[in-house]
Amino acid sequence: MAFSGSKIIQQPLPLHTTIRSPDNPLLSDPFTAAPFLGSTRTLRLTHSISASQRRSASPIVAVSDVFKEKKLKSNTDLLLTKEEGLQVYEDMILGRAFEDMCAQMYYRGKMFGFVHLYNGQEAVSSGFIKLLKKEDSVVSTYRDHVHALSKGVPARAVMSELFGKKTGCCRGQGGSMHMFSAEHNVLGGFAFIGEGIPVATGAAFASKYRREVLKEADCDHVTLAFFGDGTCNNGQFFECLNMAALWKLPIIFVVENNLWAIGMSHLRSTSDPEIWKKGPAFGMPGVHVDGMDVLKVREVAKEAIGRARRGEGPTLVECETYRFRGHSLADPDELRDPAEKARYAARDPITALKKYLIESKLVNEAELKAIEKKIDELVEDAVEFADESPAPSRSQLLENVFADPRGFGIGPDGSYRCEDPKFTQGTAQV
Amino acid sequence: MASIFQGVGAATALSSSTSFDTKKFHLSSRRSFSVRRASFFVVRSDGAKMDSGLNRIGGRADQLVTNAVATKADTPAASTASKPGHELLLFEALREGLEEEMERDAHVCVVGEDVGHYGGSYKVTKGLADKYGDLRVLDTPIAENSFTGMGIGAAMCGLRPIIEGMNMGFLLLAFNQISNNCGMLHYTSGGQFKIPVVIRGPGGVGRQLGAEHSQRLESYFQSIPGIQMVACSTPYNAKGLMKAAIRSDNPVILFEHVLLYNLKERIPDEEYVLNLEEAEMVRPGEHVTILTYSRMRYHVMQAAKTLVNKGYDPEVIDIRSLKPFDLYTIGNSIKKTHRVLIVEECMRTGGIGASLTAAITENFHDYLDAPIVCLSSQDVPTPYAGTLEEWTVVQPPQIVAAVEQLCR
User: Fold this and answer.
1) What start and end residues bound the annotated signal peptide (chain A) (predicted)?
2) Is pLDDT of A143 > 80?
């Protein structure tokens, strides 16, 4: 799909150019409700400069300007096909329905501990992950249910994991904050913020290694690292921006800036709240996008993923988004201004996409209703499956501590601990 | 005797998939320890007594080499030229092991500060970047937490990185990644991802390096579930443990010591891999079991000279595997001598010695004729002044005194 906006960005710009978009400042007022899907929110694509490397570069135009242009040009030029539209819509509905069900199940005592829900942020997950191949990797944080679902992990497996059952994607050993799937290349699920970013950097490094050292010539796997605004003040974030840009790793750093780190407002904790600016400081493009608008996210994602696949290096994408629920199910969410919540609720990404799809005559109401029904059934089925699945038995206790269980060592009787018959029963002395 | 045969039974069961000739390794009829696991060949410390009272550093290697090389049945004592094997320094042995593994498997790579162009701050990776390129021997920026995490992420995706901490102490900055991701990810992912990394680097008290460069991180890491820790002490075991650690699918932390890099020893020409979980019998004896590792092994052996002259017969075991402990070798020794002395470089509180004391008390309490004595470093940040530094670590006279006390 030829989108002239992407083409402009794609032109071979030297890594260090002098262009800064002259438009209005980006976060002048993050709280004004702006119309989306064709809104005038500017996108900024900047590159860092080195005076000695100044070359004549093509002008960069903010992506949204081209959006406007396109709309003026032709009404039949749509941003995605019907098939893609339905796919994205279904993914977002799945994310929302699943998380709503999680809340219900939590309050009914089916899952415990810390559960962090993704309501409101679906545009980021669907916008990015639906563009990936199965071999591409996704790394997330503790707010990872929807990333796993978007990547293809079955709802049943995720729900079972949340219920702590052995049929969960991690055999019940990980829980809400540790969703992993080797099959779908979901590399976690991390409880401490920031600690997943180096892991994502490693996955991107492995991709580059395969291509250049192991000579797997067609290896162009990219890695997406999702994390929040709070993480952007953490050392690991900056250290990995540096390494990724230095070695031109095929990674996209996706910041889900929902303005709040539990009860800490982004503006109260960050000296320069414009996170996208931090990309050029390390030598990579920094882009800001309206994270409540799945189509805008998708366009930016396409460009960033394309860059990574072509070996041009990493991109930092800041998605301005919002979580409709508290930080976790234990968070009373008393600090956020109800007016702010209302403003963002009016920008619900699912409602927006629905509106776009119908107004552009891509789909009709009935098709969307069918999807919603399908998802409702899927989620119900997932709950049923999880409910009926057995809890892990004692035998599972010691099994996955080591990939090679000889790591438990040699017991007093001379045999390896893992050879003790009680080991598989989970009652051996280790 | 029965326990040894039980061990043999277990060993043969475990080693059914490997091909080696057990007959070659029947070292001594009296106390042959079974060969537990072999790749090419694995040599367990032999149980035969040294007839000379002096056990020089690496002296055991001669006996080892004789058994290891099938062709040369009797080696003339004097001529070094005709001795089998080759002589090298410990850091070269580490490099040899590393290089052999990199040659063998293209997924093995090195990540760390100054490992590439500089060749490693202790020359362990010298020449490797020239041979394998800048991506396989990766010079990282100074960001321990992140490049350790990067190594872990790469391992999850199929590579086998060796992460070097320029000094073990620097890995304190990587504690987040080592504890949370390295140790735990295999478990929390339900076994879906393995983390076959080797984290290595020099630690321990050096020569007036100051408090922060003289740390013993084995005591801090030992509680982390899901990792193994080994400490090398001779060129022979350095190479063997390096290779074993790289081949292991578990995350292994290999502790080297700043003062041991220039130890010289003759090691076999043939390829060999040691067992990560086993301890090493350094000097068999009857009166007391001395358990030690890394640099303290040499303080112990120095003390052993004195002790032998005084008529004692200490059994010295280099535990090598700091996590898990080889309770079989250790137990057999305790059952024989009934007295235990632990000599370590960790601090008194929460060190390896503390854990070992607990493990021995738990498992072998009935066999002890005296309380376990544990000699550790003082709970003091290592001072710069040479005199003070000397007093923070265990010295041979203290070891001699402790044995005399124990054996009274």
Assistant:
1) none
2) yes
Taking the mean position of all CA atoms in its chain, how far away is CA A5?
A: 23
Poorest-pLDDT segment among A120-129, A142-151, A394-403: A394-403
For the entire predicted model, the pTM comes to: 0.83
Distance CA B7, CA B36 (A): 8
**Structural tokens at position A148:** 């796993």
Round to whole Å and give the CA distance between B402 and B170: 34
Residues of chain B with CATH 3.40.50.970: 85-268
Domain B280-407 CATH class label:
alpha beta
Q: Is the distance from CB of B2 to CB of B233 less than 8 angstroms?
A: no
pLDDT in tens, B178-224: 999 999 999 999 999 999 999 999 999 999 999 999 999 999 999 99
In angstroms, the Cα distances linking A144 to A37, A162, A231 are: 26, 12, 15
Q: Which of A178, A181, A209 best probes binding to B when mutated, by most B CB atoms within 10 angstroms? A: A209
Token reading at B174: 């990587």
CA–centroid distance for B343 within its chain: 15
- With CB atoms and an 8 Å threshold, state whether B145 touches A191: no
State residue A261 phi and psi, 5-degree precision.
Answer: -110, 95
* Residues of A in Cβ contact (< 8 Å) with B6: 413-415
Residue in A with minimal Cα distance to B245: A407
Shortest Cα distance from A192 to chain B (angstroms)?
A: 9
Task: Tell me whether residue B86 is one of the annotated catalytic residues.
Answer: no
CATH 3.40.50.920 range(s) for chain B read 280-407
Nearest residue in B to A212, CA atom: B135
Q: From the CA of A281, how many Å to the nearest CA of chain B?
A: 16
Q: Residues of chain B whose pLDDT is less than 50?
A: 1-78
Catalytic: B404?
Answer: no
Indicate the SS3 state at residue B312: coil
A368: part of which helix (H) or strand (E)? helix A365-388
Sequence ranges of the domains in chain A: 2-60, 75-387
Class of domain B85-268: alpha beta
Partners of B255 in beta bridges: B201, B231
Characterize the bridge pairing of strands B108-112 and A264-265: unpaired
For domain A75-387, the CATH superfamily is Thiamin diphosphate (ThDP)-binding fold, Pyr/PP domains (3.40.50.970)
Q: Which residue of B has its CA nearest to A247?
A: B135
From the list B212, B199, B232, B248, the residue with the least C-alpha distance to B322 is B232
In this prediction the ipTM stands at 0.83
